Amino acid sequence: MNTNMKIGATLFCYGTEYARYEYDFEECVKQAALAGATGYEIVGTQMLPSYPNVSDEFLGLVTRLKETYGIGPVSYGANNDRGMRHDRDLSDDEMLADTIIDLKTANALGCKVMRAQYMLSPSAFERLAPYAELYDVHVGIEIHNPETPTSPKMMEYLAVIEKTGSKYLGFIPDFGCFSIAPNKPQWMKALQAGVKEEHLQMAADMRYAGVDIEEARAKLTEANAHPAINGVLQGMYGFVQFKSKEQLPALLEGMKRIMPYCFEMHCKFHYLDENCVEASIPYPEIIAAIKETSFDGYLICEYEDELYCGGTEFTKRQIKQLETLLSE
Length: 328
What we know:
There is one protein chain. By secondary structure, this protein is an alpha/beta fold. It contains 14 helices and 8 strands. It has 2 domains: about 5-180 and about 245-325, Divalent-metal-dependent TIM barrel enzymes (TIM Barrel); about 185-235, no CATH class. It has helices at about 15-20, 25-35, 45, 55-70, 90-110, 120-135, 150-165, 185-195, 195-210, 215-220, 230-235, 250-260, 285-290, 310-325; strands at about 5-10, 40-45, 75, 115, 140-145, 170-175, 265-270, 300-305. Helix 5 links the parallel strand 3 and strand 4. It starts with 5 loop residues before the first strand and ends with a helix.
């Protein structure tokens, strides 16, 4: 079994503290180091003052913090914003040009991996290969819920990777795509807003059964569910959707199939209890599957703070969970 994986954290974990001016960039790096991360991801749009470029001043800060806390950036989170203009979507040429700027920034920061998003089309992704090789940065398309390792859209990127033969094009799976239960923070907020548990369970059961969202909404309205359930329902059919546990083995096999092209993993987590157990994402099964492969890159902890309580404690719990699972 492979246990050579490294554990890191994206500074996005501390996004709430950062947005509230409780932490500056240095404090985010310090907290990641204290939590046990051996490297960090930086999301450019969030923490680079001169985004999309990086200044010499900021590079100096990164170097100083690495000397102080022992960790530096290992991955760069790029944002592929096709809708930044008000009058039209960006063309593939424009998206490619923006991504090349991201590559230059990632290279300057010393990152060997860059997260790209599937707003960057497969054809633009294919054209990116020589630039990724030039800047020595491996670009992974993020497989983010509701996509999965075997969804048609991801198969288009796989075809590009296999066609180019480039070692610099690949994937970054986000573990949210393996969810097998409803999102706990959204569930908790719905209860606080007055939604009844029975109606939440009714919504979850319909999602598991594959009921169409409009039909599910109509049935919940019929049952006099609190209107606040609509936000939860949208999530169940959107970016925090989930599948039955019976579907998990096939999803994990799909991940194993693309593992030779995976540069890092985004260890998404929404809620961890005191025993370091994620409420909706089956970490024991996921990590066990990865350990059966030759993957030896970074497991990057990524906290989605839907409760706006800050990521400091949860990131410590997540790293502890990963350390435990890797040692088993």
